[in-house]
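Example record used in the benchmark description.
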Amino acid sequence: MKRLLGSKPKVAAAVLVPLAALVIGLEATNATNIFDNDTANRENTGQNQPNSPKTGSKTKPASTTPKDTPAGRQTSPPIVGDKKQVEVTITSAGRENSEIVVRAYASGVFENGGSCTAAFTKGGAAAVSGQSTGFENVSYTTCSPIRIARSKFTSSGSWNLVVNYQSATAEGRAEQIVEIN
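Model output (structure tokens):
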């Protein structure tokens, strides 16, 4: 009998035991979520699905940093006070004919009626701002394009743009530098 089996059980054990130890070690350090039942719940509710285009400028909620989030685990944005902190993405900001047009969306919220505000600042120049309303779009909230007359900008050059999204239940912001010509 020993001759028929040879060293195969020893080889199998030599491979499987370290592999099992590796999986258990990774699970213990939260590097994997193999045994996490919550993963199935997120997949069933669609929370693991991408909800936005892959272009644009993003800022994440201040309290969600890689050191706060175990590897491989998704977290919901924190609720600060009564409002959920959401991620705002600026998809474009620039000149279109005689206007500066800002386009943005808020991930983590799906609602109509929120307020989107774009504020441009530049040292020594008067601040310029515009506003629009958010609307439901697929699985996130899109800001209607924010249109500001180019003539309101007192100078060309680099301006700091901050886009804020605010509603009764959610808030968030994004920033980027925009060249105004």
